[in-house]
Write a structure and sequence with these properties.
The protein is α/β, with parallel strands linked by helices. The chain has a single domain, classed as Rossmann fold (3-Layer(aba) Sandwich), CATH 3.40.50.1000.
Length: 176
C-alpha cells in the first residue's frame, strides 16, 4: 500500500515530470471540425503549475503517442524542451530523455492514463494516473490524482512535488 508519507518520499527525489497528453493534459476528448481540423483543450491551472515546477529546477517532458501541432504549440508556450510525439513506447522515450539529462528512472514521475503508459508507470520512481484511467493502469500506479485528466490533475502533481521538495511555499509567497 502506498501511504501519503511514502508518496511524499518518492516525490522528494523527482527531477523530471513526464506527461502523456490525451487524458492527462487534456480530458481525453478529440474534437474534429469539418475538414478534419483537430482541436484540444488544455487546462490553464495545469500550465501554470508546470511553469512553477520548472522554475524550481524540475524538468518537464511531454511523451505522447499522437502527433499534433497543438501539442507543439502548448509545449513551446510552457517552455517544455523535451517533447517526444508519435511515441507509443513511453518507457523507451523516457529512457532517452533521462539519458540526455543524466538522470535515473527513480528520479522520474510519469503521468499516464492508458495501456501504452503502463510500462512507464510501473518502472519510474513515481508512476501516477488519473481517476478516469484504464483500470489496469490504476492498479499499477503508485498515486491516483483526485482531479481528472484535463481538469487540474497535472497541477495537483506539480503542487505535490513542490510541496514534498519544500519549494511550493516560497513560490506561493511571491504571489501575495
Amino acid at each position: 500500500m502506498n501511504t501519503a508519507s511514502h508518496i511524499i518520499q518518492l516525490a522528494k527525489k523527482i527531477k523530471l515530470l513526464a506527461l502523456d497528453v490525451d487524458g492527462v493534459m487534456t480530458d481525453g476528448q478529440l474534437y474534429f471540425a469539418e475538414g478534419g481540423v483537430e482541436s484540444k483543450a488544455f487546462n490553464i491551472l495545469d500550465g501554470h503549475g508546470i511553469k512553477m515546477l520548472q522554475s524550481t529546477g524540475v524538468n518537464v517532458a511531454i511523451v505522447t503517442g499522437r502527433t499534433s501541432e497543438m501539442v507543439t504549440m502548448r509545449a513551446n508556450n510552457l517552455g517544455i524542451k523535451n517533447l517526444l510525439q508519435g511515441r507509443e513506447d513511453k518507457l523507451t522515450a523516457i529512457k532517452e530523455i533521462i539519458s540526455d539529462l543524466n538522470l535515473q528512472l527513480n528520479q522520474v514521475a510519469y503521468i499516464g492514463d492508458d495501456l501504452p503508459d503502463l510500462a512507464a508507470i510501473r518502472q519510474v520512481g513515481l508512476g501516477i494516473t488519473v481517476p478516469n484511467a484504464y483500470p489496469l493502469v490504476k492498479q499499477h500506479a503508485k498515486y491516483i490524482t483526485h482531479a481528472k485528466g484535463g481538469h487540474g490533475a497535472v497541477r495537483e502533481v506539480c503542487d505535490m512535488i513542490m510541496s514534498a521538495q519544500n519549494t511550493l511555499e516560497a513560490l506561493l509567497q511571491t504571489y501575495t
